[in-house]
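Before relying on records like the one below, remember that each one covers exactly one chain. Contacts with other chains, cofactors or solvent are not represented anywhere in the record.
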Amino acid sequence: MAIRGESTGTNQILLDARFHAAAVSADSKTKHLGEPVKKGMTLLKTKRNVAEDHAEGRMDGLAVLIRGDVDLDEGVEDLEIDVYKAAGKDRNSSLYKGIFRMKLAKLLKLRGVAETSEVRALLDRLKEKLPVLWKTHAPDLLVKCKTVDELEAASHAADATAGRFFGDEVVARKELVETLRKSEGALTVIYPGKRKRVRSYFRQTGRKGTKKKDGNGGTP
């Protein structure tokens, strides 16, 4: 039979391995083949669980990062309203454009360091042109910028860590597939020429005796 490769999902490989381990363990001649498969299953489950935990941690970090981005956006929107008023409610004025060189909508589409860098530059211009508003808004916005920078760095680190642990899962999956292939080879030695029997130790993808149905629900 064709044993599924490591590109198959972990849960499917584990089902294949579980079936095989139970099948060979039920035969006195092949019982010894079950232990290596069970060890491979245990290792793969451990690696899978660790990888899933870190993948979930990535979601936590992403959620917090988005939260920080939204908080920063709201702070920038509050500042823009005050600058708009100080510029005589004219967004085409030299004062307004001298501070908000990038349109607000475009600025708010930025995320992470891209946004915090632009906000810091904006605050430098604000300090020069409207120092009173700078004193009002800068302390809070600078704290929010620092928070977003830290959250983004943590998110990138979590992505890298999750990637490494997923790589460990893939390696364990490959090793289990190799164990299944070695077991298949051993079975052909134990039962030479008995291909049907050898196949019976492995989980089949389709049910025995099933036929393809036509469009009307019948068999062609």
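Residues 209-220 have pLDDT under 50 and may be disordered.
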